[in-house]
Amino acid sequence: MIIAQISDTHIARSVPDAEQRAADLARTIADINALNPAPDAIIHTGDVTHGGRREDYELAAALLRQAHAPVYVAPGNRDDRENLRRAFSPWACRAAETGFLTYAVDDFPVRLIAVDTVTSDSNKGDFCPERVQRLVDLIDAERTKPIAAFMHHPPFVVGVGPDPLNFVTPEGMARLQRALRHSGRVTAVFCGHVHRSTVGRIGEISAMVTPCTATGLRKGDYPARMRDQPVYHLHRFDPAHGFGTEARIVAAATGNNDAARGA
Ligand SMILES: [Fe+2]
């Protein structure tokens, strides 16, 4: 099974680089569509839009609907649950009609579980006991397949970047870690939020963050010639060895980008 992961597209019609953000997503989807072998699924680990507006979800959905593979979305702190649900349910979000956007996809050899880590109180993540129960119930609903969980906030200490803790409290992060580890079947956790590539562990579970798809918001030290080139992750699952991850660099846009950017 092959999963393409994108994240933090921050689509918005009313920001100075609105066109660039839309182009970054469109070109990333085109690159994923051209992969051979094709991925089985595309996961988006949140901050689909920058401000949660309905019209921005309409644009994001139109761009994501260009994907040949099925798309599944987890919410980020910039997202609005109800507007996201309205734009993406059920084709890219299988959550219930109300409540948290936590859901499972059972269509593949590896189960996918989207985890809602968003709280309205902070741009950091949170994980209350109600969400623990929902996640444990989803994990226990099927007991034979491995699981890849995907979520916005990385539930591990991030050693690069300004803030190692991306949850409101260490206790909230610990609750999520325990829920992820309780069955032994979660083999990988894929995240976004920190806008840079990094890896970590949650006990025996490998965890990683994919770079921000919106090139203008990407963190980390990239050469100037890559400023228009989104980077995303491809996760290949092998039953004997688990997931192996490769970073994919989208080809540079054709045409004069300097002129397009007014540089
Ligand atoms: Fe973000």
Question: Tags for this entry?
Answer:
globular, five-stranded mixed sheet, alpha/beta, 263 residues, Purple Acid Phosphatase, chain A, domain 2, 11 strands, six-stranded mixed sheet, binds fe (ii) ion
Task: Give a description of the structure.
The protein is of the alpha/beta class and 263 residues long. The protein has a single domain (2-253), classed as Metallo-dependent phosphatases (Purple Acid Phosphatase, chain A, domain 2), CATH 3.60.21.10. The chain is built from six helices and eleven strands. The chain has helices spanning 18-33, 54-64, 81-88, 129-140, 170-181, 257-260, and strands spanning 2-6, 41-44, 71-73, 103-105, 111-115, 147-151, 186-191, 198-202, 205-209, 231-238, 242-249. The chain has a six-stranded mixed sheet. The protein has a five-stranded mixed sheet with strand order 3-2-1-10-11, with no helix packed on it. The protein is globular, with a radius of gyration of 17 Å. It starts with a strand and ends with a helix. Residues 256-263 have low confidence and may be disordered. It binds fe (ii) ion (FE2). Residues 8, 10, 47, 76, 78, 193, 195 line the site of fe (ii) ion.
